[in-house]
Each structure stands twice: as C-alpha cells, then as structure tokens.
Design a protein that fits this description.
Structural class: alpha/beta
CATH superfamily: Leucine Aminopeptidase, subunit E, domain 1
Order of helices and strands: EEHHEEHEHE
CATH topology: Leucine Aminopeptidase, subunit E, domain 1
Shape: globular
Number of domains: 1
Length: 154
C-alpha cells in the first residue's frame, strides 16, 4: 500500500533512512515544478543533475541518480520525461522509462533500507495520469516491501 498524506515531500516524515524521489526530463532543463522546492531546500540535486547532463554519462530515459543531501536522506533524480511540456504536444512523461526508474529506485532503497517519499510524480508538468503511475509504484516499490509515502500539498 501507498501511504498518502498532506504535506511537503521535501520534508519527509517517519523513522529511518529516506529517499525523496521525483521525475526529471532528459534535456537538462531544471526550474519548474517540484524541482524548485527541491532546489530551495538543497543545492546538491540540481548541481548533480546539471553535471550529469553535461557529462552525458548514462543521462538517459530510465536512469536515476541518488544524491545525498543530509545524513540518511537522499534525493533521487529520475529521468522519466522526454523533453518538457509544450502546448499542442503530447505529455512528456514516458511510462516505460518511469517504470525502469522505479525498478532502479527499488534496488537502491532496499540496499539503503530506506523508505521512499514523493509528490505525485509524473502527474504534474510531465502530464502523466496518476491512474497509470500509481500501479507502477505498487508493482515496482511497495510490491517488493519498499514503504512509499505520497505527499499532496495542503
């Protein structure tokens, strides 16, 4: 089961190690949506994302990078979006890439014994449907014993 709560995903609640997960695009653009909250709280995820994009090393749909931001707290930059949302174009979310991201996130969470915390990933600027995203989270994370909390802003 996914735990749903009202609050700020950049301030994850509960005991033990935690990973804050979010969806990024594959063109190196950072600056709208949930990433603005991430950057206000920690500079490292944006800096890591930009350096990763510049290097090109493994920066592709389905890839993730865990960025340590505090003791026992990481941010997962997950490349699950092709480009950015443009009027008149299809939603940039790529469900197959998001599923690969979540599978890799599961492996990392299990190694770290961490719970995963997120907004409704992929359902904002990425244009995805939560009805399609939630089952991916259930299959790839909670179905393997990884605790997930989804945060909705008040």
């Amino acid at each position: 089961m996914i735990s749903y709560t009202t609050g700020d995903a950049t301030n994850p609640q509960g005991p033990g190690p935690k990973i804050v997960a979010h969806v990024c695009n594959d063109i190196g653009a950072w600056g709208r949506g949930f990433v603005t909250a991430v950057s206000r709280r920690w500079p490292e995820p944006e800096a890591t994302y930009r350096a990763w994009h510049q290097s090109g090393g493994g920066f592709e749909l389905g890839a993730i990078r865990l960025v340590p931001v505090e003791p026992d707290l990481w941010v997962a930059n997950m490349i699950g979006q092709h480009g950015i949302r443009r009027r008149g174009h299809s939603a940039p979310i790529r469900y197959d890439a998001l599923e690969r991201c979540l599978s890799r996130l599961r492996d990392e969470a299990m190694i770290l014994h961490a719970s995963v915390h997120m907004p409704r990933i992929g359902a904002g600027l990425a244009g995805g449907s939560w009805d399609r995203i939630e089952p991916l989270i259930l299959t790839q994370l909670t179905g393997h014993g990884v605790a997930v909390t989804v945060y909705d802003l008040p």
